[in-house]
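Regression test attached.
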Amino acid sequence: MEKGLMLVVSGPAGSGKGTVNGRLSKMDGYAFSVSATTRAPRPGEVDGVNYHFISREEFEERIARGDMLEHTSYCGNYYGTPLKEALEVLEEGKNLILEIEVEGAMNVKRLYPEAVLIMLLPPTFAVQEWRLRHRGTETEEVIQRRLARTREELELLGEYDYIVYNRPDCAEDCVEDIRAIVRAERCSLRRHPNAKKAYFEQD
Amino acid sequence: MEKGLMLVVSGPAGSGKGTVNGRLSKMDGYAFSVSATTRAPRPGEVDGVNYHFISREEFEERIARGDMLEHTSYCGNYYGTPLKEALEVLEEGKNLILEIEVEGAMNVKRLYPEAVLIMLLPPTFAVQEWRLRHRGTETEEVIQRRLARTREELELLGEYDYIVYNRPDCAEDCVEDIRAIVRAERCSLRRHPNAKKAYFEQD
């Protein structure tokens, strides 16, 4: 079976990445990466579904041996993307979606260079600003911080492979763009380094 | 309007490129490149449809000023892909399909680096051989020459961007692969070199 692709999907606040990734991960052949954490499970949370719940010692050991694709620490607990579990999903032939921030994406690229890095963006900064204000869930201070953060995030845009623009009410187009990216990447020559040899040798 | 992509589709004898390109060029937003030639039109042939019929002097002038993406000479006449006409099709927003051999493809890449180079291949050499024999239109000598030629052609495979495998009775999959490649290429970061600047400046 052909291995799945690791898809890193990043996007600033208001880019609609939650909606797009949510729809994509429900499609055949796609899975959403389950993070690992050291925090205790809350009532109803299932190990391996909501999170991989692991001990602090195990988390730190896995960081040390390069088995966390990326990680961060929040309120005294670690959160991260475990490499081993990710590779298992890829071996099942599923494309794995990692919704992570730009700094984490750089780590993933370093540890797993075959990853495909996709930046989801509103059509313009003005649209992003409008969306953040329009959903009305954040204070002006938070909105300002998120907009400022976007400028930082886009400093690393050049490290990404693709930009997918999320036009208003067009989340479905983004899903189709990402599916096309996966299909095209499977045909890309860099994923067939032994194509010539294989062509003449296979029966 | 967004400019179309120049798609170079090559493939050895028996790869099915005629079928695939024929279907693709009938789709919305695609056009098949019309070659230029110095030979006289045959009865019923229409200038600009079957060929661009031009004089030997004009053809040689166009070669000299780099206005032939690639060309060859056959039975005392020139045949080639005119750049100006190609650019006009792209400006109309259509993706232009150039069905040309590997040497011509290298020329196109040199003169128009944004071109996307796609190699169409049967799944294996054994399948290619079977197809050539099975269609029964060529002599054994011609079949042997075409198979030997395939080895030469694939020497340049590393210069291509994508491989599309044409499995038996799956021409439609190849058309979908190429459409996915076009959609993905439109999202590729190298086609959005000023994305960051544009993001913050556009209204």
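Expected vs. actual: identical. The mean pLDDT of chain B is 94.
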